[in-house]
Design brief:
The chain is mainly beta and about 450 residues long. The protein has two domains: about 5-65 and about 100-160, no CATH class; about 170-440, Beta-galactosidase, Chain A, domain 5. It has helices at about 5-20, 180-185, 245-250, 430-440; strands at about 30, 45-55, 55-60, 65, 65-70, 85-90, 110, 135-140, 150-155, 170, 195-200, 200-210, 210-215, 230-235, 255-260, 265-270, 275-285, 285-295, 300-310, 315-320, 320-325, 340-345, 350-360, 365-375, 390-400, 415-425, 445-450. The strands form six sheets. A nine-stranded antiparallel beta sheet has the order 15-16-17-18-26-23-22-20-21. It has a five-stranded antiparallel beta sheet with strand order 3-2-9-8-27. The longest helix has 13 residues, at about 5-20. The radius of gyration is 23 Å and the shape is globular.
């Protein structure tokens, strides 16, 4: 019997090894320019990514997102206030382009963990790349399969598309007034939009800077209905003095919009007297990280929650203190309250896992919030924004007062909160696992590739 070529014998092993991050298809690999000095000084369009699998090199999508340290007032086209922050840049907003147009230390390079492969043969390289420019990125899933996988970054000699002909997300910023720089009202809104983020797994819509009013889960077997009334922000239940509506009606600006093959970025600033409060969205194919950086004078509390729409009826809401769950149906329930770090909704409409991560130097007093009532009353049940109903409204609530977090007003504390959302097919929400994934991102190490 003739011998089979070694490449054919090794093919099943290659496929198995490449699956070492298969249990985390939602998770990205994000590097900074500082971690890959060989690529510093390279134009972003010249950076390519490849994996090695089944005896061959294959190009995979990669995205360079430029960042810079700018004054807090720059995105609002205002006089400098002498306090800066590191942010994504955008030549189409007043934030402006990165002063260094090439990859520098604080820029980010993003790709997906599922696009990794096996370790390439020593001394090999794909065609069309600059000799001596390669970086081997070793990726390990610290909560799952310990076998590493690999992806390789190079500087190219030609004009290949870094997307490798694929796109995981499509962000369409649609400001209804027209061109951003010439028509956006920086000193007082509203600034109506019809902006959409679409992937194979979900769709969001923004009607203004802070108004996220559509979520349809479109993962396999998901129903695809719009299950979201609003992503809401209040001081306290029924306190309508401040909300996502007043934030959008007040002064503010878009910091950056980016529509890349690996992820979309939407970032904006200005929330009434939280002049420099900003929120940064990173949209991936199956995951979405929304981080709110609070910069405001002392306030009595704050809430961040999703109020679902009647189309979410029949879904089951869970969090870590009530894993049995309650049914979203407009009929009041009382899930066990607590300092939740994850929650989920799941049903024929699809599954949504949410993880909350706090980054602060404040001793926070906070708890969970839940209201499921088709016809809410007044007082704490008052619906400040969105429709008149409360279907499974849920999230986190800081119940104690917060000290000053705005550095332009003197000594300031620090508070940022990230809401990580995972979109999937019915029955796959698994909040505890999503929490572990957020707490243990894919680990990377780097080596120059000869």
């Amino acid at each position: 019997m003739p011998r089979r070529p070694l490449a054919l014998l090794l093919a099943p092993l290659a496929l198995a090894l490449a699956g070492c991050v298969a249990e985390r298809p939602a998770d990205p690999v994000v590097l900074t320019g500082a971690q890959v000095p060989r690529l510093q000084g390279v134009a972003p369009a010249k950076v390519l990514a490849f994996h090695y699998l089944n005896g061959a090199w294959k190009q995979v999508p990669v995205q360079v997102d430029e960042r810079a340290v700018v004054d807090l007032a720059k995105p609002k086209n205002a006089a400098a206030v002498g306090h800066t922050f590191l942010t994504y840049t955008d030549a189409n907003t007043f934030t402006g382009p990165d002063p260094n147009a090439n990859v520098d230390a604080d820029d980010e390079i993003a790709l997906m963990g599922i696009d990794t492969g096996i370790k390439a043969p020593s001394g090999s390289a794909p065609p069309g790349v600059v000799a001596g420019s390669g970086v081997e990125v070793k990726v390990v899933d610290s909560i799952g399969e310990p076998t590493p996988s690999y992806v390789y970054l190079f500087r190219q000699t030609g004009s290949l598309d870094p997307s490798a002909g694929r796109r995981y997300v499509d962000y369409r910023f649609n400001l209804l007034s027209g061109d951003y720089k010439s028509t956006y009202k920086l000193n007082a809104g509203p600034n109506p939009e019809n902006s959409t983020i679409t992937t194979d797994f979900y769709r969001h819509r923004f009607a203004d800077r802070w108004i996220d009013d559509t979520l349809a889960i479109t993962a396999p077997q998901a129903g695809g209905a719009d299950i979201l009334d609003r992503h809401k922000n209040l001081f306290a239940p029924g306190n309508c003095v401040r909300s996502e509506n007043t934030f959008s009606d007040g002064a503010g600006a878009i910091i950056a919009n980016k529509n890349g093959p690996v992820r979309a970025i939407r970032s904006y600033i200005g929330a009434n007297s939280g002049t420099y409060t900003h929120r940064e969205h990173l949209f991936y194919q199956r995951r979405h990280d929304a981080t709110t950086f609070l910069r405001v004078h002392a306030i009595p509390g704050v809430m961040d929650f999703f109020d679902y729409s009647p189309a979410a009826a029949g879904m089951t809401y869970r969090h870590e203190f009530d894993t049995h769950g309650v049914t979203i149906d407009g009929v009041p329930d009382s899930p066990t309250p607590g300092r939740i770090t994850w929650e989920s909704v799941d049903g024929p409409q699809g599954s949504l896992g949410i993880v909350h991560s706090f980054n602060t130097d404040i001793a926070l007093n906070w708890t969970s919030y839940y209201l499921d009532k088709q016809n809410p009353g007044g007082g704490e049940e008052t619906q400040c924004t969105g429709d008149a109903s409360s279907y499974g409204a849920s999230g986190t609530r800081v119940t104690g007062s917060l000290p000053n977090t705005d550095p332009t007003q003197g000594a300031a504390n620090r508070l940022s909160v990230t809401r990580s959302l995972f979109y999937d097919s019915p029955g796959k929400s698994d909040g505890a696992r999503r929490k572990a994934q957020v707490a243990n991102p894919l680990r990377t190490t780097f080596a120059n590739w000869p």
